[in-house]
Amino acid sequence: MAADLQTMRLADALQRIKQTELALVRSEEMVAENLAMCSRIRSARRRVMKPGGRLATIDPTSPKEFAQ
Question: Quick check: pTM over 0.85?
């Protein structure tokens, strides 16, 4: 009986280890996806901001505070 209890505890511990490893892999994938998304957002933000800055400096009728 003690051996069976020990075997059950060992099996339970191994199952928890595997679940934890899977959770770690999923977490790493999510971090990688978030980093990629942040990079895409930053790139898009740069693309959006650059033309607006140039248009403000090209338009001579725009107020001075908007010109860069």
Answer: no
